[in-house]
Amino acid sequence: MHCQTGKFVKQRYPILSVRRRRREYFMVSTKSMVDVMEKEIIYIIGHKNPDTDSICSAIGLAELKRAEGVDNIEPARAGDINPQTSFILNYFNIKPPKYLANVYPRAKDIMSKNVISVTEDTTLLRTMEIIREENVRFIPVLDKSHKPKGIVTLMDLAKIQIAQIEAESSRMVFTSASNIKGTLKGEMVTDFMGDSEINLYVYVGAMMKDSFLKVLGDSNPRECAVIVGDREQIQRISVERGICILIITGGLKVNSLIIDAARKCGVTIIISPFDSATTALRVRLSTPAHKVCNSEFEKVSPDDLVEDIKHRLTKSKNRGLVVLDTDGVMQGIITKSNLLRPSGIKLILVDHNELSQAIDGAEEVKIIEVVDHHRLGNFHTTQPISFLCEPVGSTSTIVSELFREKGIKIKRETAGLLLGGVLSDTVMLRSPTTTERDREIVPWLEEKSGLNHLAFGREIFTATSSLKKMGVEAVVKSDYKTYDAKGKKFGIGQVETVGFDEFYEVKEDLKGELLKVKNERGLRLSTLLITDIVYGNSLLLVVGEKEVIYNLDYPKLEEDIYELKNVLSRKKQLAPHFLSLFNEIY
Prior knowledge:
By secondary structure, the protein is α/β, with parallel strands linked by helices. It folds into four domains: 182 residues, Alpha-Beta Complex (inorganic pyrophosphatase (n-terminal core)); 109 residues, CBS-domain, CATH 3.10.580.10; 109 residues, Udp-n-acetylmuramoylalanyl-d-glutamate--2,6- Diaminopimelate Ligase, Chain: A, domain 1; 119 residues, DHHA2 domain (Diaminopimelate Epimerase, Chain A, domain 1), CATH 3.10.310. Helices cover 37% and strands 23% of the residues. The chain contains 22 helices and 26 strands. The strands form five sheets. Strands 1, 9, 10, 11, 12, 13 and 14 form a seven-stranded mixed β-sheet that branches. Strand 6, helix 5 and strand 7 form a beta-alpha-beta unit. Helix 14 runs antiparallel to helix 15, helix 15 packs antiparallel against helix 16 and helix 15 crosses helix 17. The protein is elongated.
């Protein structure tokens, strides 16, 4: 027995790609790769442009909830920390709450994270089995770095099966010896290919010698795989020709002379336990997944908005989208059914209950609780929630009372933080919004924090009353709230000072900033309440529509500046007047 060594040595292998791979295939779950939003998270958050009470009550309530055993809960904020709040946080060495620009649901909130995937060398047969076993419509194909090479869908599989029936391509299979062995669950007798992937033309040697030679014709033997049973003559001819792979069916043993000749001629021999027909079918299904997957799949980022994804899926012909991080590693998948999933973010609102004041996107996530001390706004939920709205001067008062009523131990720093919240919102208990409950809780907070409220309050306001140090943008926006009356909006900012001298030095700049806010938010009236905490009086700086300004019935000191004696509270003294005024005008 001899092989056609001249043809075997000189001809090049038609190898499309050669890689060393693990020979086994397996399913990959992204659970081991990513822990993004794996569990629901509850954010306790105040209104936009949060004031001191908003931040302090959020931090305090989060500590209370954790002490009660609530997991995955943390305070958050919907805007920058103002200088007064910064002073108090630094005083107790407490980090600011996490900043959230918005809570619009994103891809990472609704995506399927435990995704059944296959490696790029997984065979087509095994891929089909996984799709059937897991009842999925498409499956990602990942490389060793967990980056997707593409996806395989049921439609792709159907196209592959149809293509294999066509005459020109029915014999051709892109595969490797290791993939053939795995697909056949066979025995490797000789191996001269390993994981090298090539295009092979598959022939079944179920015929006499002359017919077989006629079928082979002038084909390149190094591109041939021959499937044959116990026809030793066909086996010998195949080996002598120097074919690439000889597959013996039926689990039959191979003559030692054939094996010796195969080693001399570099022929790989695999024994299949199946009959020839089944073997031929399985060989065609030994193609690696990376060869048949569709690389033109649609990708999204974990931070892409669900609203945008809805439009993409509606217009897309694909079954789903693959979620990739910035390194191209798969984080999950999104199908149309994922769009029905609620966001993993839940909210507890503090110091407000109106969506117009809430963080952007609040209407699209689940709000599970409200703790507030303001008037009721246009707030609706699909299910009952805990709603605690008390007529007190500060949300921090309510949170402090909850600690005391439930007998939950409060940290010294938290007690001091809540004391700061009470003093800020009630202007050291001098605001008309101050109630007996605010005054009554202060001694308890003094005891728990070791602070004197008068001394602590003077420190807070003295350290943070400089308008120049704050800057005009911070003065206007750090505590600015928007209100709605009959569809017409107005805004009121407030800042506490010691005297009005600094205000008059920067009033024109403040006026310009108020005008900017008015235009940005589409307001009819934009105002700033400047409160002197020493004398308990305020000035009101206004810009807006003339029909509104003409109806303001406060003493006018000069153009766009009004005197508001004994006015300390925006909520109780100023906002109600503006709401009535807007209702009358419009």
